[in-house]
Every structure is written in structure tokens, then in C-alpha cells.
Amino acid sequence: MRIPDILLILVLIMLRTALLLFIFPSSIFYTNAQSETHDNCLNIHNTYLSTAFDLTKNCVGFSAPVSGRAYGYISVGMYEATVDFLPTKISLQKQLNGYTRNVEVPEKVNWALAVNAADYQLLSYFYRNMPPTQKERLDSLYTYQKKEYASKVRKKTVKASELYGQEIANGIIEWSKTDGAENGHLNNFPEDFEIVKCESCWERTFPGYLPALTPHWGNNRPMLKQSPDVYKNMEIFDFDTDSASVMYKEAAAVYQNAMNENPEYEIIAEYWDDAAGYSGTPSGHFFTIASSVVASSELELEQAVQLYATLGVAINDAFIGSFYLKYKFNFIRPITYIHRYIEPQFNSRLASPPFPEYPSGHSFQSGAATEVMKSIFGDTTIIVDETNKNRNDIDGSPRTYQSFTEMSEEISISRFYGGIHFLKTLNNSLDYGRRIGQYVVATLKFSNE
Question: Which CATH superfamily is domain 35-176 in?
Fold first, then answer.
């Protein structure tokens, strides 16, 4: 090809590009830049969620209810810090119980910097008792990401973007302070709580005989004002010591399963125990699963932040509901019943948590959380859970499920295998947990459509 021909081709290409830029000035290259921004923001959110999992394990006082509350506010904050550059999404203000916001969007915003500032502020506050080494890691994460995304941004825009993110986070923090659990991590075992004693009542259990955990948690403000209506009619089965009664048979089933030497029962019980100090608690486990499926499904930012916010609200309100009902019914644990009426030397695979038996918090959480995930992914998604793969104290081998329903059922029955819940309790609790999840999904509106 002759040089003049090559020059002619180059000129034609330049003219074509100029024409396209003239006709579609806002669309050329914009889509790629927007996509990169979305990817950056989602990566930032997922990194901070992973950090929250580690903080949950390492912060004193982060029992399951306390952790559920932290994840609830953090996930809503992540959504609110993102929503203003998602044209199809709307804020959750005024939908959530007591939450309003009045934050102006700056003229120029680097959204990665805004999200980084918001997420950092949220974790810094809700895990404010973190050990110094964890604080150093969190600070380093924030600094690293700020440096990465601010390198080609004007200082004025950097400052405005960070201020915006901080204002969003501070609005969430101020809202959280009025829910009744502001210092819950400092008062898991309130000394002013008096245990009611009766034959069917909960009492401290072997081996630790710990006092009642978070007995007032059910009085906290739910994120959705009407969520208590979902479980207000939940009823409990009758206490009875007759060997022909439903109650006795339920306890006998727990005893018989505990005597079964099938190792799978113990593996499942320990895998889903999610005890504080050893794991990210149930909340951290569910968010780890959610972020994993977000990645494997290549979910876009818009749906991912919607998923996280919905999941956080559902878990928070499910914890409030389950603990309200636990102390309302004040029901006896299987180990206490079995010691009294079946076998005094009985021991369970798991230690019974220090609060009443009915309903099951795990079943409430698994029902609510999986309904939320089903609303985004459907119920035919294969889930490979690797949350516990690095644990050495249990068999943390990855577990695979063919659906969220299958996973929720294993989570629920794991408490039966652990010897800490009656099967009838688990079935009822899983049902009501699912109702909570369905209610949250149906109630929260993320767009005006």
C-alpha cells in the first residue's frame, strides 16, 4: 500500500471519530468510564465487608445480635453512599424507621473516593473498640485506596468527595444512636435483668452457666417500623413432661440424635455455629456468602448494593424479632429438659447459648437472609460456601448447595444436630424467618418504577 493511501485512511478514521464525537458527545467513552467507576465502588464495598468480618471476630462484645446491628447500619450506609450516582435508584430515607438525610451532592464527585470515605467512617464507628492492630489495618486500607483513586483527581474534588462520603456515614451513625442499642457491645449481660423461674422457663445451662445475653434486644427500634407485625402472632408449643406428649418426644429426638455417632451431624453443627470470637457470627457468614455470589454471578453495582442493604435490614430486624420472642416465651433449653426428665448425664454437641430456646435465632436469620438472596439470584443458583475454609478448629471444608432453600434448611437443622434446639422450634422459626425476609423485600423500594 502506498504512503498516500495510508494517509488517506488515517484522515478518514480521524474524520469518522470527530463526527461520532460531534453526534454522540456524551456517550463515546462514557460507558467505559462509568463501568470502571461502578467496578471500583463495588470492589471498595466488598473489601470493607471482608474487613468487617475480621473486625467482628476480633472486637470484644460482638455477639450475634450486636454484629447483626452493625452489618445492618453499615450495609444501608454503603447503599446511601452509592445511590446518588445510580440513576435508577432512590434513597431509603423515610422508608427506614427514623432515617432522613439532607446531604447535597457536590458539583464534581469522584465516587470511589466518596465510597471509600463513607465505608471507612462506618467501620471506624461501629467497630470503635477494635484492637490497635485492627485499627492500623483499617487505616492502611483507607489510605491505600484513597491514594489509588486520588492520584489523578484535583485536590478540590478529592476534598469534596470525601466530605460527601463522611456526611452520608455520619447521617447513618446519628440515626443508629437512637435505636436503643448504641452501646450494646458493652452490655451483653446486663446486671439488672432478673430471670423468671418456672418449670418451663429457661435457666442457665451447662457448661458455663452464663447469665442471659442481650435480654432487652427485642426492645430496639426495627429498621422497618411494621416488621414486628410479621411475627406478632407466632405461637409456641405446649410444655409437658408426659412421655406421650409432643414436648417429651421433641426432647427425646434431640437426645437420640446426640447419641448418633454419624460424624456429619457434628460437622454440620460446628460449621454453622458461627460463635462470636471464632467467626464473623451469622451476619458475617451471610454477607460473605452474598459477596461471593455477587462475584460469581458478576452482579452489577446497582443490584449488589441493593442486595447488601436489603440483607442488612432483614438480618437486623430478624435479630430484634427473635430476641423479643425469646424473652417473651422464656422457653427451656433441650439440655435442661433432658437432664430433668430423660438422662441426667446428657451432653450436647454444642454448648447451649445463654438465652431462651424459642424461637431459633439461627433459623430466623437463615430464613430471612436466604429469602433476600433469592429475590436477587432466584432459587436455582449453586452456592459454594468457603467462609470457614481457613479455620483449623472445625472441619471448614467448603460446602455446596443447589439452592438457597437447601442451604437455609441445613443452617436451621444444624441447631438440632448441635443439641440446642427442638426440631419443632426450628421448623416454626425458619418459616417466620422467611416471612421476615419476604416482608423486607416487598417493602423496601429502591426505584420509583
Answer: Phosphatidic acid phosphatase type 2/haloperoxidase (1.20.144.10)
